[in-house]
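just leaving the lab so this will be short. below you get a single protein, a line of residues and a line of whole numbers that encode the local backbone shape. id like you to explain what the token line says about the fold, in plain words if possible. thanks a lot i owe you, the record is right below:

…
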Amino acid sequence: MTTTAAPRRVAVIGGGQSCEHDVSLASAAAVAAALDPDLFIAIRLTIGLDGRWHLGSVPLGATPAASLAGAVTVLAECDVAFPAVHGPVGEDGTLAALCRLAGIPWVGSDLRAGALAMDKVTTKLVAESHGIATAPGTLVTASTASSARWDGPVVVKPVAAGSSHGVSLVTAADDLAPAIDSALALDDRVLVEQLVEGREVDVAVLERVDGSRLVGPALEIVSPEGSVFDLDSKYDGSADFRLPAALDDVQRKELAHAALTMFDALGCAGVARFDFFVTPMGVVLNEVNTMPGMTAESQVPRMFAAAGTSYRDLLSELVLGAAQTVR
């Protein structure tokens, strides 16, 4: 990896105003601490739940608008931004748009890819247009929730949220309405999807400095029978990750092809994680994360570590790649 033109100041942005605020704080702290100090100086910017920006622990203004002006001044003094903000008002292209307007290179996908991938309904449309299966589902809003009917086990989820917030496995008709209400508390649109019986397998794609793409080893998530990979199991240390996933050559190729196809179709950049179900009928796409969890113990860094790319080298690839990307 060439480092002759390495940027020195990297604005690592964490927090945000979504339900993934705390997860994002963890990602940003890990990224800032792990950046190679011989190449980069990490500048910590945090967005509070109230929308105010902070430099370190110091507020940059009394209001969100005033603090944003201060944040843009800080960003202008940096070489690259690393938006480690997950979920709405961040991963959905919001921060990519801010960086583009400010003329600052950033790690990750642009507004279009972030917005498309965050919207699970749109993601399904893109996938299906490329022959990639998704779970049959119905879009529900507050005005149509009363007409939703249970016709078997379903998964209820907000259209635009992450970390399994608001996700419920519904196995009884009486539980459908409460599950929809829980999801509607986080988003004004909800997906009610048929439960897919299959193995949960994640695949990550990394766009390297030289423009090539690396598909990391697949990771399988083994959940207890009759459950889904929910918010608690993601962060309480109980998740059972199998890396590399036990797959045959056909399954590995199908997963890699589907992940690369979606990476290109959505217009992703940097790194993205693609969550699939592996079934006897083939792979089924569950969702796409354009800014996945980025602590050293998160799924994507684990996958690339298994492929021989350390956490620090992964971050360097992302920052250096962003620095030389013309958008």
The two ends are 22 Å apart (CA to CA). The mean pLDDT is 92. The first strand starts at residue 9 and ends at 15. The longest helix spans residues 249-266.
